[in-house]
């Protein structure tokens, strides 16, 4: 097995474990609610300030239809509400309900715990190694987005 193969195996393993852990943590922390990790992220963003579908799509680097689907689900479950903006009545600005705010805080807590664990792992590397890791991940994201840079 080549070095590249070993790195890809570890990277794939991390991605799968991270996604699984994020889903499990979200499900445990959100009192058996039926929301996805993406929806949890939306709640966390809306906890900062009300936002439109377009704003959320740009922030999360997802399509507007994907955000619309997630927002419809969150609305139907009573976690968010939408209201036309004063500047443009065609734009809907979404904000959290009390229940949605509570879920957003749980999601933020799960994020904070994961961030702390990753930070501890990264602190075991010196600055040059951390820069190499960052450069590698930047290139992997470009490949995933099919961006030739």
What does this entry show, briefly?
This protein has 149 residues and is mostly helical. It has 6 helices and 3 strands; from the N terminus they run ααβααββαα.
What does this structure look like?
- The protein has helices at 3-29, 37-48, 53-60, 64-76, 98-122, 127-144; strands at 51-52, 80-84, 92-96.
- The protein is mostly helical and 149 residues long.
- It has one domain: Orthogonal Bundle (Arc Repressor Mutant, subunit A), CATH 1.10.10.
- The chain has a 3-stranded antiparallel beta sheet with strand order 1-3-2.
- Strand 2 (80-84) and strand 3 form a beta hairpin.
- Helix 1 (3-29) runs antiparallel to helix 5 (98-122), helix 2 crosses helix 5 and helix 3 packs across helix 4.
- The radius of gyration is 18 Å and the shape is elongated.
- The chain starts with a helix and ends in a 5-residue tail after the last helix.
- This is HTH marR-type domain-containing protein.
- Keywords: DNA-binding, Transcription, Transcription regulation.
